[in-house]
Amino acid sequence: MSISNLVMYYRTLKGEVRAVDDVTLSLQKGETIAIIGESGCGKSSLAKSIIRLLPRNVSRYSGEILFNGVNLMELDEEAFNREVRWTKITYVPQAALNSLNPVIKIGDQMIEPLLLRRKTDKREALERAANALKLVGVSDVFLHHYPFELSGGMKQRVIIAMALLTDPQLMILDEPTSSLDVLTQANIMNLLKRIKKEMGLSMIFITHDVALSSELADRVAVMYAGQVVELSSAEEFYGSPKHPYSQKLMDSVPTLRRDKELSFIPGSPPSLLDPPRGCRFAERCPFKFEKCSQDPPVTFLDEDSYVKCWLYEKGRL
Amino acid sequence: MNDPLLRVENLRKYFEVRRGLFGRRRLYVKAVDGVSLTLARGEAVSVVGESGCGKTTLGKTILRLYEPTNGRIVFEGEDVTHLGWKELKWYRRETGLVQQDPFGALPPFMTVKRILEEPLIIHGFKDKREREERIYKVLEKVRLTPVEDFINKYPHMLSGGQQQRLVIARSIILGPKLIVADEPVSMLDASVRVEILKLLQELQRSYDLSIIYITHDLSTTRYFSERIYIMYAAHVVESASTKEILSNPMHPYTRALLNVIPDPDPSNRFTIKEVPAGEPPNLIDPPPGCRFHPRCPSFVKGLCDAKEPPMIEVDKGHQVKCWLYG
Hints:
Low-confidence stretches of chain A: none
Distance between the termini of chain B: 27 Å
CATH class of chain A: Alpha Beta
Mean pLDDT of chain B: 92
Strand order of the largest sheet of chain B: 6-7-8-3-9-10-12-11
CATH superfamily of chain A: P-loop containing nucleotide triphosphate hydrolases
CATH class of chain B: Alpha Beta
Structural class of chain B: alpha/beta
Strand content of chain A: 15-25%
CATH architecture of chain A: 3-Layer(aba) Sandwich
Low-confidence stretches of chain B: none
Oligomer: heterodimer
Structural class of chain A: alpha/beta
CATH superfamily of chain B: P-loop containing nucleotide triphosphate hydrolases
Order of helices and strands of chain B: EEEHEEHEHHHHHEHEHEEHHEE
Strand content of chain B: 15-25%
Mean pLDDT of chain A: 90
Number of helices of chain A: 10
Number of helices of chain B: 11
Number of domains of chain A: 1
Radius of gyration of chain B: 21 Å
Largest interface: A-B, 48 and 39 residues
């Protein structure tokens, strides 16, 4: 998959919110990219733009999303729904625990996408649902139970099983463990690692938790104020982040096993209603200089990684 | 150590629930079941546990926001376990609470000034000028400055970090000696989190405040507290200095917790972590013996599932509630 210049704005009473502003990313088969950033930086909006779950008041949606060579942006709604959404690309939403319908049995909810899109009969679909449940470590007797009978961790597993049911090539996980306990979270991460290894599917893992992102990420995209400001391999990012924002963000992450002086970033991110013209981080950046009042270009450090910062401008290094 | 500020002995808090037809069967959720802790003046301790382990109930019971079922709470040598309504007012002044969700904890229809004035009025600060002075001072202390910019705002006009600063300001405006901070940073972003923790630490030092920091996140405790109490299913299962817990965890539950918390490290993605199976028990009818035994990797049959382990002092200041050390 490769995304270029993806833009998604939506209109509110106060003006246009530039939630996703010119994002370019590529994703290899079997690779996991973690998208990290603070709340309101547009990371969930990016995920929703990829699977085209747009807010109703969207005002601008453009760019290119190539998926297996097909530009998804050119598909009409019906074709997108039939061929991509919840079949080739699946989505595990934030607050997944509340996204199960409380009055429908687990099994019936799980097979819905299969019955709608794939034209399988109910028996076969239920069989596949049972297999998917076993894969995520939930007994298949729960097919006949209602969501309230399951614990948080189990519901999360059911949702992941649902997202696996259609043999997707890409799974988008939006904060999949943010409301779970530490041990349950570790369990789910183990499960996702296993799925990643055994099924070879690509993942986009969205989280605000830098430490947690290292549990899955092969590459990391850091978002700030609607833009990706750095894309790096996991080794690079957790070792020596490039963008000043990534560096500051890393400095604020507490570590359990290493002594480290924590620091925070003074100020707060700009409003996406009217972001500053130049670099959006400039105001809070310790390395700010004259050029930062202009929008910094994306500088590729190698094929798979880039920084959007004047410090890395070609010829400067 | 000189006289502790707070001594909690064998504290219990049960909540009654009714089950069965017409509620004829009385059952109790034993949210806090025999917890003891001590806190010196100016000391910060952490209470760590997963959701539902009773840590919030413990905090609220210590503040007497809940009536204890039994046990004893001694504050500055005074038994406050069953204080009446009138004397409670004194205790309220000496203690403060910082809630988890700052927006939910602030009345949306009151301005910053009004929010901070309320406790002053209740506690009899009659002079309007004095109240104003105190409000300015406390806002400066939590760095909501320039004060003029904030004083007439409503909570929704503040960012999450600023709201939490306001909640902290409210909790310290009466000059308490003890603060219970219940997950004060769990809803905030990483960078803001550090900002708030540093602020709390600064207040602790400059006012000689004692703080009980309740959290599920072990990784922030080392930056904040001198001592950690690990809670599991309404019991404290291990307590020691922060350094000791992190370098030499003894209870199998503490070990499991420490083992699964990631540090940012690219090699994490290649390792599967060991996680104890199952889930914390229901507190209406907890398992007999050690409450962790159904999930414990080093469980001894016939002992752990039959007899509740005592709190064992394994080292000076390091206590573990586990038969492995008995």
